[in-house]
């Protein structure tokens, strides 16, 4: 993701982020300007989920099953143990 400094329009680096919701749909992005000779500002951008343009072609269950099928046998065992307790 590209972040531009709002002061000098130089490239900026995201140094950290903080979720503002349980679902990570809104985050504060802590940024610093890469133009340290002239600007060097630090600032916060807010990134948020807005809306769906095209929904997934698969259901949440289909997506989860696909992800589970890609796990190793050991990872599947750990997953089962964690959720059966």
TL;DR?
26% of the residues lie in helices and 31% in strands.
Strand percentage lies at 25-35%
* Count of distinct strands: 4
Please outline the major beta sheet: 4 strands, antiparallel
- Mean pLDDT equals 92
Domain module count: 2
The low-pLDDT segments are none
Number of helices: 2
Q: How much is the radius of gyration in Å? A: 20 Å
- Structural class, from secondary structure content? alpha+beta
Which series of helices and strands comes N to C? EEEEHH
Quaternary state of the chains:
single chain
Name the strands of the widest sheet in spatial order.
1-2-3-4
The general outline is: elongated
Characteristics:
alpha+beta; 4-stranded antiparallel beta sheet; 85 residues; 2 domains; 4 strands; 2 helices; 31% strand
Description:
The protein is α+β, with helices and mostly antiparallel strands. The chain has helices at residues 60-69, 73-84; strands at 3-4, 11-19, 26-33, 42-48. The longest helix is centred in the last third of the chain and has 12 residues, at 73-84. It starts with a strand and ends with a helix.
Task: Draw up the topology in text.
Layout: E1 3-4, E2 11-19, E3 26-33, E4 42-48, H1 60-69, H2 73-84
Antiparallel strand pairs: 1-2, 2-3, 3-4
